[in-house]
Design goal:
The chain has 21 helices and no strands. It has helices at about 1-10, 15-30, 35-45, 50-60, 65-75, 80-85, 100-110, 115-125, 135-145, 155-165, 170-185, 200-215, 215-220, 225-235, 240-250, 255-275, 280-290, 300-310, 315-330, 335-345, 350-355.
Length: about 375
Amino acid sequence: MLTSMLSELLNREKLKITVRKEAIRLLGAYKSNDSMTLLVREYEKPNTHKDVIIAIGHAARQCLDDERSWTMLSTMASSSERDIARSLLNQQPSRLPLESRPRYLRWITGIAGHADPIVAREAFRSMISWLNGNEEVIATCASSTLLDFQDSTRWKAALDTLIAACSEGKTDEQVIEVCRQLAATETVDEWNAGNERDLPERQRLLALIDKLTSLPLTERKMLGPLYAGIITCLNSDETMKLAVIRLHLAMTDWSKVDLAIGGLDPVIGIVNRQPYVLDFVNRQVSRVVNASKGYWKPEDLLQMVDQLNARPHMAAFGIGLCLLKIAGEALLWNEDCTDLLRVYRTHEQEAVRLMALDIWTTLE
């Protein structure tokens, strides 16, 4: 009865768009055997208003057991009309039948290649709600966009999606491969200090590593194998040493003295070979350790300082002073901290004495 009434209403030539949209919504909400036939009829009418087409798409999603709905929605997914293509992206997977979800996700990954970059970026953002159980599919889509240097409009959205897909360690190999390919890409001449593009492969690789190493500690703890894999991939590239240092520090466990010292060993090795990076290392150590307050005890940091002070390396002294400053502030510069600071201020190496003299227990 309702379907026949809606059919008669929709057959009227002069019908307000809002009324037509509501009739179409009712076809989806109270679907019958004839609902899809009426939706197809409405969709195939010439010069259909885009808002009506969007309403048809919403209604068709209630009829995914009918292959005609998939055909119609596929046409909408490739529409050059921005709002029509975007209308398919606000679908929550939990509101679809389980068997329809993989096919629907393929649409979303397809829309990520839409000619309109605004639509494409929105597609990547919508994928994040589809991650559960689809991490590899989504990571593959995001990876291909990161490696597409002909397009510079959507890689940042793809990067955010890739980071979300790898945050539980389920796509390590894909992310490592992206890093490997970005690092191995030869720079095109016009993209070397060009007016419009400059080293896009390096910018994308460094942006990826920056986001990976800036994740919350709870997520970084699960990504040790990923960090180690990227380090192995980049270790032989002298121009990526700063990124490698960040990866080492991101996977360092500051709550356990021996593990922290072990994590610092490769960083100290890099600084010993390239002393000019010591200031960078100290800034990174300070940032990472301060960002993980609550996961370590300042007394443990002091034990690390003692162990580092026993090593005959400028890098160890510099990192030790950095950790001493953090521990000293946490312990209100108690006697143990001030005694250690005085030791550094009388160190045999002038550079160490100068660094220690610029750490103060109180300000004038």
